[in-house]
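QA checklist item 7 of 12: single-chain prediction sanity check.
[x] sequence parsed
[x] length recorded as 452
[x] structure emitted
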Amino acid sequence: MASIPPGIRILSSFTRDQWYRAFTFVLTFLLYTSYHLSRKPISIVKSELHKNCSFSNHLDAFSSQDTLLVSSVSCSWKPFDKSNYKQLLGAMDYSFLCAYAIGMYLSGIIGERLPIRYFLTFGMQASGFFTCLFGLGYFYNIHNFWFYICVQVANGLVQTTGWPSVVTCIGNWFGKGRRGLIMGIWNSHTSVGNILGSLIAGYWVSTSWGLSFIVPGITIALMGIVCFLFLIEHPDDLKYISKQTSGVIEFSLCLLFAKLVSYTFLFWLPLYITNTAHLDAKRAGDLSTLFDVGGIVGGILAGVISDKVEKRATTCGVMLLLAAPSLYGFSMISELGLGPTIVMLVISGCLVNGPYALITTAVSADLGTHKSLKGNARALSTVTAIIDGTGSVGAALGPLLAGLLSPTGWNNVFYMLMAADTCALLLLSRLMLKELTTTKPKTGVLVALKEH
């Protein structure tokens, strides 16, 4: 009898539970990647909605100087061709993120009462529809500002179906032992989605920006079908949160400021690069992906370090402490050339997104599956919704403030971001002190919850 091939022996060495666990890991990673992939196009297309085309049209203007004056705004998309275009673009961001923040509180509650597979499938199909609807405004020549606002509000609401659901799934399948590392790797779906969304949107942004929305919209809708066919659930009964209340509040408020910084970069970085480095929309979009590359590194690094030292709050605090000066450095160095800008983009992305990634994944899972819940891990959905919903309030405020402050100078925007990082650090100070003064090793953030 022939020997069993070594590859088959390796495959057969894993149990069925391990295979299902790996499958759930990969599937939920891809599902939430598609969510962020569909959110990113708006930041890439901003530079196309309002741009000065006088130089590109110079060769085509033969008749008079009046022709040049008209052509200088002919490439802008009404109603974003006005002088207050930054406020209009900021209002679109705020509409999406405000709806997302409000919807997040509701989605956790609704998601607990529905099968996760059905809830996610509906959310992804609806997200695909509204993302495509925004892009159809290009092909149907729609210039009504309120059309785009309404689409953004609707999309913000349905996009809240994703995060509590996928975190619940991944939290139910993986224990606490190496959760920081596992979720640090898994959470890179956020940055991967941003990168893919930037590249896809950038491919069509200068020729047919409607496709920059339609292609990601179709992608998330197709992934919704995959979710319906293959997602494996492991739900438990819901129990009320009790002893974790204090830790949830502090981490939630910390995330509010951390997410404010992260989402300001998400929605405004390509436009900032366009204005300061004088690059076209596609090159600025491509360059902005380096911030998300740093985010991948930061999420994994934060997870590994927090697993090793068993101090989630302290890990977040150190990264927040370093993030503020890195933002100042980026604002200064970005004017010196492409090379220093690339380096600081990666560093800033690492330090800004590291705490954000850790709080929304490993910290949420630790709190939601605390032993006081007596094995009722489904409460993880509620904890995740509270933490990320509060963080989404900051995500809504950040781009709005950037839109209001940017006309006064980009330096003021960076001062606002540094102040937000400082506030996030201060909100974690009590938990950090608790972790650093304890004498008996504990697991993760639970050390800070000892007396609650």
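[x] summary fact logged: Confidence is low (pLDDT under 50) at residues 55-73, 235-243.
[ ] second reviewer sign-off
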